[in-house]
Amino acid sequence: MAYPEDPAGLSDEEWGQYLFFRDNPEGEFAERWSHSAGCRRWFNVVRDTRSNRIRAVYLPAQTRPVIG
Amino acid sequence: MHPDRMWRSAEPRKSYDVIVVGAGGHGLATAYYLAKNHGITDVAVLDRGWLAGGNMARNTTIIRSNYLWDESAGIYEHALKLWEGLEEDLGYPLLFSQRGVLNLAHSLQDVRDGVRRVEANRVNGVDAEWLAPEQVKEVCPIVDVSPGVRYPVLGATYQPRAGIAKHDNVAWALARAASDLGVDLIEHCQVTGVEVTDGRATAVTTTRGRITANKIALSAAGHTSVVAKTAGLDLPLQTHPLQALVSELLEPIHPTVVMSNAVHVYVSQAHKGELVMGAGIDAANSYRRRGAFHIIESQMAAALELFPVFARAHVLRTWAGIVDVSPDASPIIGLTPVENLYLNCGWGTGGFKATPGIGWCYAHTIAHDTPHPLTAPFTLTRFTTGALVDEHGAAAVAH
Ligand SMILES: Cc1cc2nc3c(=O)[nH]c(=O)nc-3n(C[C@H](O)[C@H](O)[C@H](O)COP(=O)(O)OP(=O)(O)OC[C@H]3O[C@@H](n4cnc5c(N)ncnc54)[C@H](O)[C@@H]3O)c2cc1C
To answer: pTM, whole model, 2 decimals?
Structure first.
């Protein structure tokens, strides 16, 4: 969720969207994790919210892989 | 003894005046009041599973109305008043027991917040008292109020009219009453899509065929985002597992309901004798009805801190429900940008207590295509206007 480049330029709707609305899928969900009890590194994960199975792991700088 | 069949099980017809999506407590109450208060009986309540097998069957049944803000006091107190006459209205025992609720304070800030909330409650006509530790002990002798514990009890708010009810009985009684008034209750019928034509909701597609309707009212709790999305509607909701547990059956030992925000546990004793304890949500969002173990562990640790006497009790079972959490911990109710599509969601961890109240107000909203005055502050548009009803923490909001 990137911070808007020009927050003051947003309409109330757009600002509300930025503040309060997030994906909430039943299925594949991209999120950022921190391995806080270990190496303390940040990394990206695609998790299936139906089963909590991890479908993909990738570095923050990488783009989300296509899962076949 | 229960009669064999309490409600007609119906086959879906091709068309209804109103379709309610979700046969939890809220969907059933809505159908009941649509029929009873508004004479609208051409109604189907659809559920993907069996009747009231979602959060309605999984909650810890705490009923109270001692919320901080005027808007919340309005809807929850309306619900509590309805609870007080519901057994008689539905002609069925609900085991509604007004045994009171204590919300414990463990820090100076807790005390200040609690006293403030008591005053706010009284202004709104909600019964509320501030109790000193000795008085807490009088209401609930098994709470440890000694000063030496890690989170000493510095006092508590007390709402005597709060209590518990038997959730299954509530669902069955509402289902029977709605069914008797002509409502179709249709189980194992998952809504897979809401059809929108020219900005109006016109039909649902389901695992048992397409059904058209004049009005479509969502009441799908943790799955509301998924259903709303098929109508092109994004909602500010996150879905999380919420866990609870019960002990084996014990002699009556716990006379009230005790909640503690600081150590995060809430405990009551069911009529049958189990201690019923609720935890917090899992931090990660998930639709899997299984929560993380460490949540249960810290919940039990919190319970033991407050109730040393529970040390020898055993856990009988734990479970989770899937709850829809909104940004300000208040529900989202009312009209949507899609005509004829109505929204009741975001009750998160605390919607059981509202069951009759929301059924009443949601039915009104659907019947008149206008928000009921008590739910008008809870519209979706508040996330644009900024008029939030922030009950996070402020009102001991866990339940
Ligand atoms: C562990 C736990 C403890 C809780 N404790 C309390 C408490 O002490 N006090 C309190 O006030 N609240 C409590 N709650 C919250 C309360 O249970 C919920 O806020 C409330 O039950 C939500 O309303 P409902 O009964 O209609 O939901 P539900 O019973 O979850 O009903 C929603 C229904 O929608 C159905 N559905 C979903 N998707 C579809 C679809 N696509 N098509 C058809 N049907 C669909 C589901 O199958 C479900 O039956 C607790 C919740 C949990 C999980």
So the answer is: 0.96
Measure the CA–CA gap between A18 and A39, rounded to whole angstroms.
31
Query: DSSP E strands: which ranges in A1-68?
Result: 28-34, 42-48, 54-58
* Token digits of residue A45: 């994960």
Q: What is the CA radius of gyration of chain A?
A: 15
Mean pLDDT of B251-264: 92
SS3 state at B30 = helix
Contacts of A16 in chain B (CB under 8 A): 383-384, 386
* B396 — pLDDT class (breaks 50, 70, 90): very low
CATH code 3.30.9.10 for B98-161+238-325:
yes
The mean predicted confidence, pLDDT, of chain B is 95
Cβ atoms < 10 Å from Cβ of B38: 14
* Nearest-neighbour CA in chain A from B392: distance (Å): 15
Distance CA(B360)–CA(B29), nearest Å, equals 7
Residue type, B126: V
Give me the phi and psi of B320, to 5 degrees please: -135, 155
Q: How confident is the model at residue B261 (pLDDT cuts 50, 70, 90)?
A: confident
The pLDDT assigned to B262 comes to 84
**pLDDT reported for residue B398:** 59
Q: Provide the pairing of β-strand B238-249 with B209-218.
A: unpaired
Fold category of B3-60+167-237+327-385 in CATH: FAD/NAD(P)-binding domain (3.50.50)
Task: Say if B287 is an interface residue toward chain A (CB within 8 Å).
Answer: yes
Residue B397's pLDDT band, with cuts at 50, 70 and 90, is: very low
H/E element holding B364?
Answer: helix B355-368
Q: Are B219 and B42 in contact (CB under 8 A)?
A: no
Q: Is B329 on the interface with A (CB under 8 A)?
A: no
CA B310 – CA B251 distance, rounded (Å): 12
Domain at A27-68, CATH homologous superfamily = Folate-binding superfamily (3.30.2270.10)
B235 CA to chain A: closest CA distance, Å?
Answer: 6
Residue B337 CA to residue B384 CA, distance in Å, equals 13
- Distance from Cα B323 to the centre of ligand 1, integer Å: 7
What is the gyration radius of the CA atoms in chain B, in angstroms?
A: 21
pLDDT on residue B393: 62
The pLDDT tens digits of the residues spanning B76-89 come to: 999 999 999 999 99
A49 CB-side CA count, 13 A: 23
